[in-house]
From TrEMBL:
Pathway: Protein modification; protein glycosylation
Top-level taxon in the UniProt lineage: Bacteria
One function term, GO molecular function aspect: protein O-acetylglucosaminyltransferase activity
Species name: Ensifer oleiphilus
O-GlcNAc transferase C-terminal domain ranges (all copies): 256-407, 420-607
PANTHER family reported for this sequence: UDP-N-ACETYLGLUCOSAMINE--PEPTIDE N-ACETYLGLUCOSAMINYLTRANSFERASE 110 KDA SUBUNIT
GO biological process: protein O-linked glycosylation
SUPFAM superfamilies assigned: TPR-like (SSF48452), UDP-Glycosyltransferase/glycogen phosphorylase (SSF53756)
Stored Gene3D superfamilies: 3.40.50.11380, Glycogen Phosphorylase B (3.40.50.2000), Tetratricopeptide repeat domain (1.25.40.10)
Name of the protein: Glycosyl transferase
Keywords in alphabetical order: Repeat, TPR repeat, Transferase
Amino acid sequence: MELPLNAHTIFSSASRQYQKGQYTEALDSLNQLLDLTRDAKTYALLAKVLLKLGFRSDAAQAYQLAGEEGGLRSEHFLAEAMKLHFACGNDDQALSLGRPLLEQAKTDPELAYIIVTLFLKRDQADILGPFKSTLSASARQEHQVLAAKLLTSDVGNNEDREIVTNLFRRTPSNPVLLSAYLVFMQEVNNFNEIENYAQALERVIQSNNSKFLRAETPFYNIHWCRDEKLNRLAAALDQPFPPGLPKERRSMPHSWGKKIRIGYLSNDFWGLHATMKLLRAVLTAHDPEKFEIVLFCYTPEKYLKVVGQGRESWGRIVRVEHLSDEHAAQAIRDEQIDILVDLKGHTMNSRVSILNHKVAPVQVAWLGFPGTTVNTDLDYIIGDHYVLPDGSEEHYHERFCRLPETYQPNDPAGRPLPATTSRAEIGLPEDAFVYASFNANRKITVETMKAWAEILRRTPDSVLWLMCPKPEAQAHILRRFQSYGITTKRIIFCAKVDYEKHLGRIPAADLGLDTFPCNGHTTTSEQLWMGLPVLTPKGTHFASRVSESLLHAIGVPELVTADIDAYIEQAVALYGNRAKVAEYRQRLTDNRMQMPLFDSERFCRHLEQAYEMMAERARNGLEPALIDVPALPARTGSFAQ
C-alpha cells in the first residue's frame, strides 16, 4: 500500500534519523507516523529503533506486528520477533510464534535452537526430530549440545548415529559426545572404534571426570562398566529431588487397609514382552485374600492389540499413558496404593520420574533395571544375595530387599516346552561342538570376544552360534574373529524368530556362553528352561551377577566360574568332556520342575513376604532398612506346570 504523501515524508525522515544515529528523534517521528498508518515497513523500522534504544521486548512486539501485516518478509519479521522474545525471557510470546516458523527453522539453526529449547521446556519433544540435523551442522557449541539432547533412545536410529558421529568428530575431547559415540559403536559391535577410544575413556575415568559419567545413560553404562561405584554416578544429578522428599512422602497421611495394595508401574504390560514372560505367573499367583493388585499401565496401544494376552488376569488395570507425571501420581494416590513397584528403572521409555511426586508410602524398584535407579525417590530395590551381596550397599541409594533364592520370577505355564529343532533345519553342523550366545549383540564386548576367540582356538571341532540380526554388526564381529585367527566359517549367525520357535532351537547347542560384564537375563533363564547349560564368570555388579543367581536357583552352581580365565578353561574342558555336558543337561531337565528358578508360586510367596515386611515397617513409622526374606521350607516333590 502506497503511503500518503505526508506519511511517506515522515517515514523518510525517520529513516534518515535512524541512519544518522538520532534514535530518539526517529522514535518521535515514528510515533507521529503510527497515527497516520500502520504497515509492516513502519513496524519494522520501529523495531530497529527500539532495539538501538535498548527496548528489546518492545522491539519484539514491533517485529511481531510487522510480521502479522503479511507480505514477502513476514516470516523474517516473525523470526526476529521470536528471537527477541526468547532473549528477553518471554517464552510464551516466543512459543506463540514458533509453530508458523517450523519449516523455516529446519534450515536456520538459530531458530531451531529457540524452538527446540521452548518445546523441550514443555515436554513436547515429539515434533522436534527434524531439527536434529540442522543443529548438529551448526558451528555453535550450544546448538550441537542441544542436537545431542534430541537423540532418540533408539540406538538403531541411523540418523542419530550420523549426528553423534559428526558432533564427536568435531569435538573429540567432549566427554559427553565420547559417551554417546561409544554407545552407537557398541550397538553395531564396531570394536576397532571402541578400542581406538578405550585409552581416552580410561583417562576420563581415572581423572574422576564426573561430567562424563553424569552424561551417560545408566542402561548403557552397565553394559561396559563393571564398577558399582561408577555405575551409581551415571546420569546422577546433584539434587534430583528435594532432600526432604522421601521423609515428607513417608509421613503423609495414609489409610492402610486389611489387604496390602500393591501397584505395579510399567509400559511392558503385554504378553510378548520379556518382562511379562517372567512376571505374569507371579501376578496371577498373588493371594487375593491378602493383596490387591493394580497395574498402572502406560503400554503403547499398538501392543495391546496382541490377541490372547490374558491381561485381565494380571490385576486391575489403570491406564496412565496420557497423563502427565503429576496427574499419573495423583491417579496412583487415588487408589490408596501402599507399595508402588516400578518395573522399568533406567530402561527405554521409562516413566520412573512419576515416583518423584510422593506417590506411595513405600516405593520399590524391581526387575526392569539391574542396578541402582539414580535420581528417583525409592525406598527399596528387590534382589537376592547373589545380585546384591554384602558390601554393595554403599553403591545403592535404595535399601536392599533380598529374596532368599533368586530375584527373577519365571512363568512355567506360559513358557512352553516345544518340540526341538534339528541342527540340519537351522544350518548347524551335525558333529561339531556348538557354543551359543543368544544375548543382545550390544552385550558382546571386546573382552568377551577375546575370551570366545581363545575358546575357539583351543577347540578345533567347534563353532560359535550367535543371535545377531544386524548385518553391520555381523561384519564387525567376523572381522574381529579373523583378526584373532578364527575363520569366519566357524561363526554361525541366526536371526530373531517367534518365541516358541526360538525356544525349540536352543537345545541344538551344546553349551551357552554368557556375555560380560552384562549377562543374559531372560535369555539365560530361557536356555536353562530348555536344558542348555550356560557358563558365566563371577561378576562385580548387578548386571554381571544375574546368571550366577539363576544358575544357583536351578541347581548348577558349578557353571559359575571364578573369573574370565576360569571361564575359558571350563568352556574348553567341557568341549573335551561331552559326558559332563550331558550330565548338566540331564540335571537341568530333572531340576526344571523341582528347583526354585521356575517355581512361580514359591517365588510369589517369598515376594509377598517381602511386601509384608516392607508394609509392617511403614505402618510403624520406621525408616526403610535391609530386609532379608527367610526361605520357605524346601519342597519335597515337583510343582505343577
